[in-house]
Structure formats: structure tokens, C-alpha cells
Amino acid sequence: MVKERTRILIVGGGYVGMYTALRLQRQLKPELKRGDVEITVVSPAPYMTYQPFLPEAAAGSISPRHVVVPLRRVLDQCKVVIGEAKSIDHVKRTATLTTLATEDEGAGAEQITYDELVLAPGSISRTLPVPGLADYGIGFKTLEEAIGLRNHVIEQMDIASSTRDPAIRDAALTFVFVGGGYAGVEALGELEDMARYATRYYHNVRPEDMKWILVEASGRILPEVGEEMGKYTVTELRRRNIDVRLETRLESCADRVAVLSDGARFPTRTVVWTAGVKPNPILAATDLRLNERGRLKCTAQLTVDGTTHAWAAGDAAAVPDVTAEEPGKDTAPNAQHAVRQAKVLGDNIVHSLRGEPLETYGHKCVGSVASLGLHKGVAQVYGRKLKGYPAWFMHRVYHLSRVPTFNRKARVLAEWTLAGLFKREIVSLGSLEHPRAEFELAAGGKPPHDPKGSS
């Protein structure tokens, strides 16, 4: 039994943050009811995003609101604070936060104290100093970016259909994706599939008019599904007239021209950057121990190494892989580990509060699945290799089983069922990004400037 009031602070509302809080809610139900425990979750967004569904959301197969889980609904026993942790002093057990009200209040960041700390801020996009990337690049890590990219692609098709300038048309129909991991390959596969379908509704845009280019710095794509399936994916993408360029880097996208390291130049209005992630900046603003890659150095019990009352998992944590044959290997920073680590982390906090021995985290990956568009995919599960429709079906079944809450499972399944009965939606709602633009113009203001040139 917890003997005194314990304040648990969870930084991050993603996989680890939400699942850990859920676990604590269930395991500490009596203590929460008595007021012996207080759980605070700090997240920059009021929802958890199920990222494997971002490509399907971008393609219009799933509604955006069904890709996210509202934190306040599922964490009804926790205090949810929409904001960001800017620094953490674990010696003093204090965290400095900014919230949506910080700027209006004018009092600066606030400090809160805690007894147990869970650091699960996830990761952010890793960018390189590529000229023009900050001005014209589009990320693919958040739901807003995924939906924005969908609107952008359809809008480029509208531009190409209406322009009389061949150069503008060519640039509008050229789509460059940088990064051959899950995010890049799945986003490219789904959006190319959607755009090819959409051309049937354009009188002057054909599938062969579009150029889809995948740029990968290494010699292979989708390393998670194995070398053989990676090679199959390259072959499959090239069969769809997608230009896959391995061992190639993006050197510049200034002035809306993608310049590659192999000398190729592509005028384009779309550069999608999915070339990896890096640790969240909050980790460097703590007094906790980091490894050489900037991730928190953790034990197999998911405690931060070298200290007490600090826990971490997911992208932010370097957790020893106790199932690996070679010593010193860490678990991969993916969703498969994050969800499972969160459960052990939540249980271990409860064990710690009750003076019980801690559990050791160990999980051997059973495989990986990837979608390449409607009815197309690759998978390697329990040593078996799947491709085409069986792999795509496995991808859907697996992720449907993993998306949080029965509510979301039912809604996603219903949408997939309806999508099989009706035609795809190919409407661009790009104006959602600037909802006040029309009113501002009517009131005598200036319309917003879009550096990406999507309007």
C-alpha cells in the first residue's frame, strides 16, 4: 500500500505516456480514489496519435479524428496539462512547464514538483542543413502534417490541371520523398496510390504525367522487414513507375528545385522529409544521464540509470535488449517496444511504491509489416515473408488490434468497410490551414503567405 501522497509526473502523451498513465490508473485505482496518488500528464497535444495510421489518413482511408485518442477521455483519473516541459531538475524534483496560457498570463513558465518522474516525450524530426528545406520541406510525423500533405498533393493536381505553363505543371506533378524508412515508403505508397486513383476525375492529368521520387542515402529501404523484402519493395515501387534512388542524398531544394547527390535536378513544389528522428530537446535540459546519441541511459527495469524515482521508455530511452544475442544492444525505438515497455514501466512504478521487486523488460520482435498502398504491402512475421495482398491484410489486422480503445477499433473498421463499398474521397480542404483567410480579405486584410506554394 502507498503510505503517503505521491505525485507522479508523466512528460509526454504519446504511446509511452498514455499507456503508462492508463496502466497506473488501473493498478492504483484505490490509491487514486483515496487521494494518496496524483498523476499529472503533460502533453503538447490533447490527444495521442496512432502514427502507423498516418499514411492511411493522408490517403483518405481513415478519418483524421479516428487516428487520435483524446487523452482527457481515456485518462479520466489523471490531470492532463496541455503544454511542454522546458527543463527538469531531478535533484530538486521540479519541472518547468509552459502551457497555452503562459504567454497571455505574462508570468513566465511555471514550476511543478513531483515524486516520481516518467520521461516519454518521444522524438522529433531529424533534419540536415539542406538549403531550402526549412522553406519548402514538408514533414510527416504528426496528424496535421499528414492531412496537410494530402491537401497539398490534391491541390498540386488542381494547379497542374488549370495552368497553361508547362514548367509550373511539371513542378506541380513532381513529388520528392526523402527517407526510405517506414514513414517515407508508406506515405509515398499510399499517396501515389491515391493520386493515381484521383487522375480519373481530371480531364488532362494522367498517372504517367506524375513523377514520384524516393531518395534514400543508404543502399536499402525498409530495413525492418529484411533485405529480401526490402528488395521486393524497390522492385514493386519501380513497377509502379516510382523512381527509387538508393545511396543518394538531397543536397538542396532551394528555389523549388530538388538537387540530388547523383546530379539529378527536379523542379518540384513538394519535398517530403522523413529522413529519421532525433531525441526530444527536453532530454538535454535535464540533469539525467544520456548516452552518446542523446537518449536517456536506462536499465532493463526502465529506470533512468544512475538515479532513483526517474523512469523512461520509448524513443527517449536507451533500454538494454535482454533478448539480444550480442551484448550492449538496445531495443529498437519503435511502437512495438514502446507499448510493451509502457505496461512494464507502469507496473514497476506501482511495485516501487509498494516496496515490491521490479520486473525486467524483455521482448523479442515478432516481425514487421508495411503498407505500400491499397491491397499492396510487405511483411515479415515469425520468420515468414509475405507480399502483396496477404501482407497488406496482415498490416491492417495487426494495427487494428493495436490501436487503443474499442471505440477507435470500431470506427476504423467501419471506415474500412465503407471504403470497400464506396469510392475514395479526393477532396482537398487546404483552406482549413488558414480558416480566417477569406474573412480577413473581406475585412480589408491581406491573405496569408504560404511559403510552400500550395495556394
UniProtKB/TrEMBL annotation:
Keywords noted in UniProt: FAD, Flavoprotein, NAD, Oxidoreductase
SUPFAM superfamilies attached to this UniProt entry: FAD/NAD(P)-binding domain
A Pfam family this chain is assigned to: Pyr_redox_2
Domain FAD/NAD(P)-binding: 7-342
Source species, domain of life: Bacteria
Record InterPro entries: FAD/NAD-bd_sf, FAD/NAD-binding_dom, NDH-2
Family: Belongs to the NADH dehydrogenase family.
Protein name (Swiss-Prot/TrEMBL): NAD(P)/FAD-dependent oxidoreductase
Organism: Streptomyces dengpaensis
